[in-house]
Amino acid sequence: MPDDLDRLLTDAKRASRELGVAPAERRHAAITAIADAIERAGAAILAANAEDLERGRAGGLASGLLDRLLLDEARIAALAAAARQLAALPDPIGEVLRERTLPNGLELTEVRVPFGVIGVIYEARPNVTVDLACIALGSGNAVVLRGGSAAERTNAVLVATMQDAIEASGLPRAAVQTIDRFGRDGAGRLMRARGLVDLLVPRGSAALIERVVTESTVPVIETGAGVVHAFVDRAASLPMALEILLNAKTQRTSVCNSLETVLVHRDIAETAVPAIADAMRAAGVTIHADAPLPGVDAPEPLGEQGWSTEHLSMDVAIGVVDDVRAAIEHVNAFGTHHTDTIITDDADAADRFLAEVDSAVVMHNASTRFTDGGEFGFGAEVGISTQKAHARGPMGLPELTSTKWIVRGTGQVRA
Questions:
Q1: How far apart are CA 29 and CA 83, in angstroms?
Q2: CA atoms lying within 13 Å on the CB side of residue 304
């Protein structure tokens, strides 16, 4: 017999069909209504968030997760601003990707269409609740959210607020739903809801992503952990390098595009490594290494995972490599194919790094903190895809669409 979760998923499927044919103007109006509603409900959202934070601290939630969990007035304002930016973006639904006429007169057109129902499993990130709801509406999809117990009170208030705004805009309330109340079992059932859920996106720890990828029978777009690198080449401007490295490491440490490893060309190591370490330590960052570093007293050893550690804290690993080739080999061996940057004034070295590093985003003379849907002009993001199928890098509206072929004929039959 169908239970409450079955009915919820069935309602989401029904809502997705209505959303898929809803005019862009109505979907955009619903997103704008969400932005307005979140601002009006700010006090209630912050009160619920305070409960989650208090419970998280009492339960020993890691500092990085507490930072991700936190909402304040500025972050609520940023959520509303991102929603309004999304509402102003071009509608991807119906966009013509290819068209041609065959010799027999058949007219072929490939167009963007919604996936249908998107499931998202994530941890301690109430901002994701709003971002995903708005991106789903903007791309004509319904969304089912499993945000985890850490943010359960905050997510409940956010989802109820958004559902009221969506319904008032003339779209189905079931377009955005949460299954947090069904707990871990609900997450497992979401992974196996093939036929009701069309696509699943995990966001969070490596363990969470691994569980979803290995257990799901629903197609998955894999977002990845961020073992993010910066390579300081021998032709780097050291003042520029210090500014980029400090921003990438300290601007916000708990997110997947923050810097975890600095590699320095051996030719400048005697000068550059002490300068980098001094600047990092002055900013409160702990230095880790697997060997003595020139001019650096007593660096901490690498963690249990070695060069593959994603700290998400005020910690950074520093290593010395022989040249750009060695840097590329290190990044490809120990990175997570997320974001990596080279700092250099040597165009040839930069071009080689950008071409040969196998990551979703590669950068030259820029902070890795720019790998973000909002910074890329997407309004918000579904996540940072580190796989190679369908979507890679920050995922916005087009990445939550599939395609279909429309064929128009005048009675043709195949011989």
A1: 11
A2: 0
Which pLDDT value is given to residue 72?
96
Structure pTM? 0.85
Beta bridge partners of 288: 300, 317
Q: Residue 334, CB half-sphere, CA atoms under 13 Å: how many?
A: 22
Give tens-digit pLDDT for 15-28: 999 999 999 999 99
CA torsion sign, 390 to 391 to 395 to 397?
Answer: negative
Report the C-alpha dihedral over residues 46, 48, 52, 53, rounded to 10 degrees. Answer: 20
More confident position, 52 or 223: 52
- The per-residue b/e assignment along 179-212, b for 16 or more CB within 10 angstroms, e otherwise, is bbebeeebbbbbbebeebbbbbbbbbbeebbebb
